[in-house]
Amino acid sequence: MTSRAIGMTPNEKQKMFFRSRKKYIAYGGSRGGGKSWAVRAKCVLMAQRYPGIQILLLRRTLLELRENHILPLMEILTGIAKYNDQNHEFVFPNKSRIRCGYCQAENDVYQYQGQQYDVICLEEATLFTESQWTFIKTCNRPSNAAAPIISPRMYFTCNPGGVGHAWVKRLFIDRDYREGENPDDYDFIPAKVYDNKYLLEADPTYVANLMALPPELRRAHLEGDWDALAGQYFQEFRRQKHTCKPFEIPQDWKRFRSMDWGYNDPCCVLWHAVGPENRVYTYRELYVTQTLARDVADRVRDLSYGEKISYTVASPDMWQTRGTHDIEGENIAEIFTGHGVPLMKADNSRVIGWQQMHEFMADAPDGDPRWVIFDTCENLIRTLPLLTHDEHKPEDVSDGCEDHAPEAARYGLMSRPAPSRAKKEKADIWYDDPFDLNKKRRRRNGRI
């Protein structure tokens, strides 16, 4: 490979990107990390090394494709590869080909149906929808099945944010894999603007410009924080701050549960404990779909074996009498009670509840947040930072978000005194009759 073809010397993060041999390799994080150059150089390196290889380089729009890749490639590949303007492709003397494509509309992916590419690159992958990514990866197969050139692979560059934020984050940051997805296939190389010395030398003001962005965009584009995105409801959430490694909960700490029920959507149950200074620790999570109420109740009861649970608050719709998957006419709350998990109706004041969560995420006088989540509660940690403001009611969370675990957390924290009233907790007691579905908090003096 000539120095002319790659244009400059790669930095250490870019070298890691070049060397990775995983099936799916992502590179990125903050803006200015040298992503476009890295994927463009990788395409050229592979085209020259492997005769006959077929490469597809995708951007979301034709304008982005032309400005970010076609024009730079025309400059560095002059005399090295022949450019076909009609097909937007570069053909090398060894029969290798780099095709430059775009998918601006959702259905644009179908123009690649039936085609075969040894390598596919999704530039700015978070601008592609999950359905586009799901379809386009079906084209990632050997172009010569009789004599494969290399094992098929895909390269991604990405920043936090965009329509594809959730699926990119799930695969490469959270590493939350579904059935059929092999964790060993995925590799993520984080890169920040500080890794790109060429940009810093060419534009010393670039970092200052990123620093001037609004807080959530600054976190995403300067720090490469995947838990930040424009419109994020809980902008204060930080994994390093609001999560912790599991530890043994002391026996004298008060424990309680909260639940968001779902018939077809996921059902989430959370276990909480109240520590010193009324700090709440969420220490266990059950996240299940398409199952019977009695089965969920049995699992909740079994997971709580040996623990003294003071109470369980649950979504009010569990008291609606309707046909269920279990017993006709018996509501879900009654089924749970019959299986040893008595429930109380949660306070479903949405906006007040979300504000209560803001209060618990704030720092206590000791500098630590009032609510901490064990890092084993994967779905709560995954979905909490993805909540966004409702477009028409910005003080509420959008109903288009996956909010089952945050809803369960909201019910739980709403059952606690607000941090500003936490000192009054000592004056409160609970009657612990496990079959009293109408428990009420009472003062020691007997007043309701």
Question: What does it look like?
Answer:
With 448 residues, this protein is α/β, with parallel strands linked by helices. The protein has two domains: 219 residues, Rossmann fold; 205 residues, Nucleotidyltransferase, domain 5 (2-Layer Sandwich). It has 15 helices and 17 strands. The strands form three sheets. Strands 3-4-5-2-6-7-1-8 form an eight-stranded mixed β-sheet, sandwiched between helices. It has a seven-stranded mixed β-sheet with strand order 9-15-12-11-10-13-14. Strands 16-17 form a two-stranded antiparallel ribbon. The radius of gyration is 27 Å and the shape is elongated. The protein starts with a helix and ends in a 5-residue tail after the last strand. The relative contact order is 0.10. The N terminus and C terminus are likely disordered.
List the helices and strands and how they pair.
Layout: H1 3-6, H2 12-19, E1 24-29, H3 35-49, E2 54-59, H4 62-76, E3 82-84, E4 89-91, E5 97-102, E6 119-122, H5 130-136, E7 153-158, H6 165-173, E8 186-191, H7 197-202, H8 206-211, H9 215-221, H10 239-242, E9 243-244, E10 254-260, E11 267-274, E12 280-288, H11 293-303, E13 309-314, H12 332-338, E14 344-345, H13 350-361, E15 371-374, H14 378-383, H15 404-414, E16 428-429, E17 442-443
Parallel strand pairs: 1-7, 1-8, 2-5, 2-6, 6-7, 9-15, 10-13, 12-15, 13-14
Antiparallel strand pairs: 3-4, 4-5, 10-11, 11-12, 16-17
